[in-house]
Write a structure and sequence with these properties.
The chain is mainly α. It has 17 helices and no strands. The mean pLDDT is 86.
Length: 434
Amino acid sequence: MRDIALAIVFFGLLPFVLKRPFLGILMAAWLGYMNPHRLAWGFMQTMPVVQLVAVTTLVGMLMSKEAKRMIWSREAVVLVLFVGWMGVTTTQAFYPTLAIPQYEKVIKIQILTFMALLLLTSRERVHVFVWVIAMSLAFYGIKGGIFTILKGGVHRVQGPMGTFIGGNNEIALALVMTIPLLRYLQLQASRRIVRIFLGTSILLTVLAAIGTQSRGALVALSVTGFIFWLKSRHKFATALLVAIAAVAVVQIMPPAWYERMATIKTYQEDGSARGRIDAWLVAWEIGKDRVTGGGFETFQQPTFRRYSPTGADSRDVHSIYFEVLGEHGFIGLFLFLTLLAMTWLKCSAIIRAGRTNPEHHWARDLAAMIQVSMVSYMSAGTFLGLAYFDYIYHLIIIVVVVYALIQSPQPSGSTALPWPSGAFRAALGLGSQR
């Protein structure tokens, strides 16, 4: 039944994408983050739904008169350079048969990212795009939070297998990154029932992240909680929200969870932590030895035999920073860090503009919450290899678009959403188009 229901929705929407390509961007985000096809049991589970949507959207962009705008900001240029450099490192990879498919996957992600950049031409579109991303992942936050409460935190929350967020650590990172976006949506919502729903979603998503039993999630939540409060407009309400979440964690989680989290302080005695450090040392040695790094999927046993100072067996690198360093060298790491730094600074510029112009308060809130999401990504990413996760790149292009929107008048052309205005717009907290 799930397959049939999903197929009806999926194939029923595809024809509309040809006329309204932005609908295809929303569908790709929904399918890419929520992965509803992975929750099916039959033919839809393996169907390349994202690729079908991407191709249909591309055709629609070529045929449709829907407004498009390319923003060649410094972040967009650095992102292109980063993707191009990954192509260079792929030609020099230790394991080309492994590296080429991975590079193809990255290219597909970035094509969709730049397609979204072209079609995010208004505040409304940005807002709805954030809604789709946040609620696609909040589905697992709400579901996982309820599961954690019912099971007393004994069992781990997992993501859909075969996806970027399949493991407990991966879904934990995605959930922590989503909490600030849910807060942004709550700040913008015009209806009380929507604000209550989003506040409840935040609490359940926090519990789901804790319920993953990921030590990285605890570190990220600890760091993010302070930044979350610091960046919030309503500091008392935010502090209360954080306190309620902390009390809920204390009341629900079992002793075994506390024992596992305590190993953060004794990482020297933990085999998993030692393995990560060994992999980081290998990445450092590869970076020193080769300008191009080892290429995608470089952390294999022959690489460890050649570069490991401790003679360790091959391990996943489990760090966005050392992943990029080992696979793309110091040049790749420089481009990656530059991209994150530029995005952070642009968020700060948006926040400053929003303080002096009431019309840009929405942009200030969004930029502040994206900074909190970036803190989540950069802190949890220290212990998790998700350098190519499309989530962070979508946040980057959102920042680029928002900055362009507050700097210049709305471009001419159709920027309307592919549905009528009215109660739906009011529920989402959408104002008039500007």
